[in-house]
Amino acid sequence: MTRTGRPRSTAADAAILRAARELLVERGVGGASIEEIARRAEVSKVTVYRRWSSREALLAAAVESSAEGLPGRTHREADPAELDPDMTYDQMTALIESALPQAARTLATPGYRALLAQAFGSRFTHPGVMAAYWDNHILPRRRVALPVLRRAVTEGHLPPGTDVEALLDMTVGALLYRLLQPGDITPEEMLDHLRRVYRQAGLLRS
């Protein structure tokens, strides 16, 4: 049976995520309550809970929603189906290459860097937020990337015996290390950093 009723408001989705991002940056995880998010978004708490089952899930989605332009990101939440575990090495490197300019602009944005800092800083004070972000947004992409990298080793694109899990960890770690450093970074500087990291990891052709 087809369900009928009021269609979900994308405007409300956007307002809730925007309010959550703003409060995370301004007040941290502790100050980003459902009540405050609903008040700033000018919606009811019921409207928020219809979309996200918990504060942790909402805050994780808020961090993710700020990452538009990065590979595999959608407007609202991660969609790992956008990344194909059966893609070839050439397709993977082409995807990375095409995504880098927009990714650099996104990663260089002070607001995005602040959100990442809040998310990772919540690991011990509010572990549920980091757990939701990890389970819903990081692990799904990791599960897609690993078989592609293993196939790249088998086909000779990466050195024999490459530990692809360590390679992925080091690549992401190098990006986070730069993002969490003090001081501003321009999109041009970020693009140069991305190219050097991915090239060193063997994930860019040139």
From TrEMBL:
Residues 33-52 bind DNA. The keyword Transcription applies. PROSITE patterns: HTH_TETR_2. It comes from the Bacteria. Keywords: DNA-binding, Transcription, Transcription regulation. Coiled coil: none annotated. This is TetR/AcrR family transcriptional regulator.
